[in-house]
Amino acid sequence: MADDKEFRERMQRIGGLVEEIETIADPAVRATARELVQSLMDLHGAALERTMEIVAEAGDAGMKVIDRLGRDPMVSSVLVLYGLHPEDLDSRVLQALDRVKPQLRKQGCEVELLALRDGEVRLRVQKGEHTCGSTAKTVRADLEGAIYDAAPDLVSLAIEGLEEKSATGFVALDKLMTGAGVADLQLSREGQGAD
Q1: Model-level pTM?
Q2: Are 126 and 113 in contact (CB under 8 A)?
Q3: In the predicted model, what is the mean pLDDT of the chain?
């Protein structure tokens, strides 16, 4: 969706500008710029909070609107930014997992939630027999995308079970060359040459 892409680009640009504020050499100008950004955030946050209160006063119809706002990707991100999302972080993570599970099953993988507390999520992925390295990378990207889209306020995300493994039976040449068998072979050859 073009709007989502534009929104993400704008958010990245804002993040970049905020980082630039920290590089301003003059401490007074830097402090003023920080205060300006914080004042705008406070004003917008208070206005959004009041908007949500007014909508909620409409009863069931208002709560349906708030739920719908919480499901809209663009609005949801802003509500999370201001701590106004109608659902807590744990609920958003669980819903994201439910949404991505069918897609992962098509790729031959199952995901299990190991831990979800204090903004930290730990998952384990069970790969199918025929899951290749590129599929594992896709699964990781799909999981990370779904979780961070739903919960950008997450503290950490750990995914177990997608580690790269070397092909069975393959031994790298440098490992062979440093092994005791090579040294024994060389000694044996030297002994034969001496005769």
Answers
A1: 0.65
A2: no
A3: 82
